[in-house]
Amino acid sequence: MFLVLELHQKNIANHYAMVETICNINTKHSVIFIATGCHMNSEETLAVFERLAEDSQKSLKVDRNKITVGDAPNGKYFRTYNQREACDATELNHRQMIKTIDDLSIDSTDGRKFCIDINDVEKIREHLFVDERLVRTTFNKAIIVAISNLKGGTGKTTVTTTFSTGLCTETQKRYRVLVIDLDPQGTASMYLKPNISDDDFTVGDLLIGNYALDEGETFEELAKATCYPTNTPDLHVMPIRPSDRNYEVVSKKKQNNEEEKGREFIVYEDLKKIIDAVSDDFDVIMLDTPPNFGALTISAHYVANSLIVPVLPSQNDRDSTSKYFDFLTEAYKVIQLLGHKGYDSVNVLPTAVDIHSNAQTSIASKVRIASSNNCFSVDFLESEAIKNCAEKQNTIFDQSASEYDATRSSLKSIQNSTRTLIFALEAQIQQIWREELK
């Protein structure tokens, strides 16, 4: 049975206590609320927006508090492995695994179950593959990848966080990866550092100059301290806050001041200063960009030496991306005049492709064909596991199948298909470094 309550929009806030009481006592009924239209004056309209903002923040805070009770530096839990998963990750058989954890004094017991976390797996890998940790020489530059598309909702953040985590967990060499979140919405920051506090510095603080160096402290030291560890070994994040969007205003003021003095304003210098300060500590730096071509996006395109363009498999997104490439052609002419030396790689990537949809697979195929040599050979597929993991602000490589609370086969399947993309990106990274040494 259903109980229908009709409430005027402007009075909903006043009825919250009544609504809560009705929900508690009507356990035998499904309660449906209908907010009927009613003209509101400007003050009442503002009150609605304030309530929506406040309640939304409260709801997000509840979810975030549930996520940030773990033992990792970012408040999340470290990924765990059962014995089979640990053997697969380290390429050991069961007997070799038992001997190795014995030699390394690793506690693998969780009640009666075998269970180790990702830090233990890293210890084993370091013990077995010492030389594999040396992924680049001092002559190699860090690979800086901008994930960009001016069309919103194409999966930029999902690609950024998934690829970053995958490079740290799924490859044999285990790269040192930094994610710099340049999108003021801060979704990548919430994935990788959900326990960000008011005392933490952000990329916006460094860009705007919202800091005071301690005596003897250098900007380089501050920038490195702003690269926060996550629940994945070797993966760090430089987060952003919504207020950091003020950098767009600050950079515009800088431009006006420089032009008044008859000097050229170079927009990318603020971000380049940060990259220069931290790049020696990382093999790969991933830049999650906002869906607009402002100062942050222009800067990202300039400091990057590789580019990934996610594209959803719909005709509208295909059209939008085509227009983005037209715009990027003209924008890059400006970046070129500023001294950019060219990208090492440009990859178009169809994202969230449903393999059961003929329309989507057809469009994804057209995108790959149109992109010729500038496209990954496989797509980033749609998966319920990606959505389930995202609900807990995890990527698909933040969890093992044994700890996944939904259909395990769906997680394994998307991990396997996405691992192919991770290996393709790794091959490009290694190829770039080889060419640099020639």
Automatic annotation (TrEMBL):
CDD domains the record matches: ParAB_family
Boundaries of every AAA domain copy: 144-315
UniProt-listed InterPro entries: AAA_dom (IPR025669), DNA_Partitioning_ATPase (IPR050678), P-loop_NTPase (IPR027417)
Pfam family, one: AAA_31
Protein name per its UniProtKB record: ParA family protein
Lineage: Bacteria, Pseudomonadati, Pseudomonadota, Gammaproteobacteria, Vibrionales
